[in-house]
Amino acid sequence: MSKDDYWKKKLSKEQYHILREKGTEQPFTGEYNDHFIEGAFHCVACDALLFESNKKFNAGCGWPSFSDMAKSENIIFKEDTSLASVRTEVLCGKCHGHLGHVFDDGPTETGKRYCINSICLKFKPYTRSD
Predict the structure, then answer these.
(1) Catalytically active residues, by annotation
(2) DSSP-derived secondary structure for 66-126
(3) 76-80 mean pLDDT
(4) b/e per residue, 84-107, with b = 16+ CB within 10 A?
């Protein structure tokens, strides 16, 4: 089975489009845009830990926004020159799935705004033992 076939079988059609074909979900439609429960956000494709709720903020942009990543080894950055501009793409460090983009306009101490597609994330609430 090819990698492409593997991902098509594992992911929904929408997940595949965003994670493997670098698509974008419509703003204000994602499950985690206004989600502020304590927990961690993992890659829906491979379960890598990506972001934690204490770094999530409401940027008003229509996508979940984070000021920092949970584990630097689980995030890859790549220059994106699509749409006639230069942006920094955010990829999962484990499966290399497209997650979104990072911008230097965040309101926190990091100055970063990780703008991430909800459909790429799987939320796991913290338990008392976390």
Answers:
(1) 115
(2) ESS-S-GGGEEEEEE-GGGS-EEEEEETTT--EEEEEES--SSTT--EEEE-GGGEEEEE-
(3) 96
(4) eeebebbbbbbbebbbbbbbeebe
The DSSP element (H or E) to which 4 belongs, if any, is helix 3-10
Q: Which whole-number Å values give the CA distances from 44 to 7, 12, 108, 123, in the listed order?
A: 11, 10, 26, 9
Q: Are residues 124 and 69 in contact, defined by beta-carbon separation less than 8 angstroms? A: no
Residue 24 corresponds to which tokens in the numbers above? 């974008």
pLDDT for residue 44: 98
Average pLDDT value over all residues in the chain? 94
- What pLDDT is stored for residue 105 in this prediction? 94
**How do beta strands 65-66 and 56-57 pair?**
antiparallel
Domains of the chain: 3-125 (2.170.150.20)
Average pLDDT for 71-75: 96
What are the beta bridge partners of residue 42? 49, 122
